[in-house]
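I hope you will forgive my troubling you with a question about protein structure. I am sending you one protein, given as its amino acid sequence and as whole-number tokens for its backbone shapes. Thank you for your consideration; the sequence and its tokens are set out here:
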Amino acid sequence: MSTRARFDRGHTDDLISFLAASPSPYHAVASAAERLEKAGFRQVGETDAWDASTGGKYVLRGGAIIAWFVPESATPHTPYRVIGAHTDSPNLRVKPLPDSGGHGWRQVAVEIYGGPLLNSWLDRDLGLAGRLSLRDGTSRLVNIDRALLRVPQLAIHMDRGVVSDGLKLDKQKHMQPIWGLGDDVREGDLIRFVAEECGLDAADITGWDLMTHPIEPPAYLGRDRELLAGPRMDNLLSVHACTAALATAATAPDADALPYIPVLAAFDHEENGSQSDTGADGPLLGTVLERSVFARGGTYEDKARAFAGTVCLSSDTGHAIHPNYAERHDPTHHPRANRGPILKVNVNNRYATDGGGRAVFAAACEKAGVPFQSFVSNNAMPCGTTIGPITAARHGIQTVDVGVAILSMHSARELCGADDPHMLADALLAFLEG
């Protein structure tokens, strides 16, 4: 029986909606919060006093969300089961002085965020999304989801060697998108346009975090629609799976008897090192977990006991075997699409998984009834990393790196098996349930 016949596509259909609604980290956490609200979670303010009430709660800070469910059975020293991910993806982000251009073209000045495959952003219709900071101290999400910008590639007639020598792109000179015609560069023009789109007065916008996004929607692909193509799957695929798993765990009939406190931790800024107040290398997760212990009447000793028994699954995408570049992969580890989530291993701690962590994930997959695969980098290739080692080192908790195998990682449009997201979510749910 094919995996397409085995698995319900409802989860992947919802993932498509989630990706489309989340063109920025700020939209992603808003989308996650909306799903958690429907599962009975409520937002708590970081500046408010927290109480000992049970149930689902979450904190929003910028492009990060920490959510947790306190069952009736919880004590001050009850350990946590954390599922972690990141909300950001490589892209082109608007500079503080965005209005530029020349030779009759009007352009937007952008900075390269993270490590995108630059060629994948060429000749692609782009929208603009992100967050506006207003004079009154509030913020507003904005999503201009239409063909607004484009980074045009140089015609082959002017670069005859591009096929034989490869495309060489200068991040400063070659990646500035066009958005109109005109000989004069008018300062403030882009922000005035964004303000009009949002029904705001441009004078009320005092700051912005804006970024481009491809407007082509996610879609099933292949003869049997067994693949999914879409933007930002690294790592909104994991954010969506984690959100679905936590919502399901919190609404199960026996949720109040859970032996652990299930937690979702979705951070921003993983693609550039995680060092921010909303990144995994910041204090946000530790502060939330500590405050939860103390709100339930716990002491420092209770917090230490809770952290000692805590386990985190750090979920991020990994590399599926590429049929055109198989030699770039480890010769004995070939993760394949629709064969289940991957366990990511690197003995130099680029991933946090060890043998004990493998056993934890194997037990979760066995309980969920899904297969899993192992990923190890080719020894001759540098290995990427995740929030896993950072989480383990910063909080002293056992952490395991897992995810879904994809192709075209860091492209403007990535590719995965359409059933793998559902299998990942099932494994995460089994982990949360203990």
Notes: DSSP finds eleven helices and 20 strands in the chain. Residues 1-5 have pLDDT under 50 and may be disordered. Residues 279 and 365 are 28 Å apart (CA to CA). The chain has two domains: 3-89+231-433, 91-214.
